[in-house]
């Protein structure tokens, strides 16, 4: 390799390293911006609807959504929201209704159900989203949503690590039967794979 070629190679490598560094810093900045478990309270990047009529705060996320979605499917949420709104004028942009004890990821998963990115596609959460939504559906007694979520968890639990997480969360939620079905589905799939490998 000539000196010129070697210099060009060094410059290309330096350029690639600088590009990767910029990309890493950008990705880190985006993750921090969308992390609502810490830092100051701020509008959620996705779930702050201009036409929403209720403003709530979960951890550091300020969410502006439509009240009918929250109250139609859960009597518990309806009571949780309506009482402070009527008595203390909470739930406005100047005074968001604080939701204590919930994880923002659970609310993001719940609102993704009400506000899908593509309205023309059937609701199909990832395994992680379904796991975040499971405690929400159980806590706020959304029976139909709970059934849908548990079905997705059963279908999408594939690894032993996921089985462990499903089992732990099921115990906490007292939904052991759902966990048994998910675990059974994984072991049946494994047996089918073993049988197929032995056959062919």
UniProtKB/TrEMBL annotation:
Coiled coil: none annotated. Signal peptide: none annotated. It comes from Serendipita indica (strain DSM 11827) (Root endophyte fungus). InterPro entries: BTB/POZ_dom (IPR000210), SKP1/BTB/POZ_sf (IPR011333). Residues 52-115 form the BTB domain. This is BTB domain-containing protein. Pfam families: BTB.
């Amino acid at each position: 390799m000539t000196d010129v070629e070697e210099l060009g190679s060094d410059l290309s490598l330096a350029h690639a390293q600088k590009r990767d560094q910029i990309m890493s810093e950008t990705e880190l900045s985006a993750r921090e911006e969308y992390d609502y478990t810490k830092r100051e309270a701020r509008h959620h990047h996705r779930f702050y609807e201009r036409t929403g009529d209720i403003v709530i705060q979960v951890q550091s996320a300020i969410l502006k959504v439509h009240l009918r979605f929250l109250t139609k499917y859960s009597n518990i949420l309806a009571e949780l929201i309506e009482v402070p709104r009527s008595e203390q004028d909470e739930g406005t942009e100047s005074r968001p209704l604080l939701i204590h004890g919930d994880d923002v990821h659970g609310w993001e998963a719940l609102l993704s159900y009400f506000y899908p990115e593509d309205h023309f596609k059937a609701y199909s959460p990832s395994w992680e989203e379904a796991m975040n939504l499971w405690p929400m559906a159980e806590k706020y007694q959304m029976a139909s949503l709970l059934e849908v979520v548990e079905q997705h968890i059963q279908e999408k639990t594939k690894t032993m690590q996921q089985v462990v997480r499903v089992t732990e969360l099921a115990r906490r939620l007292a939904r052991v039967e759902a966990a048994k079905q998910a675990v059974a589905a994984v072991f049946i799939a494994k047996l089918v794979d073993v049988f197929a490998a032995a056959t062919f």
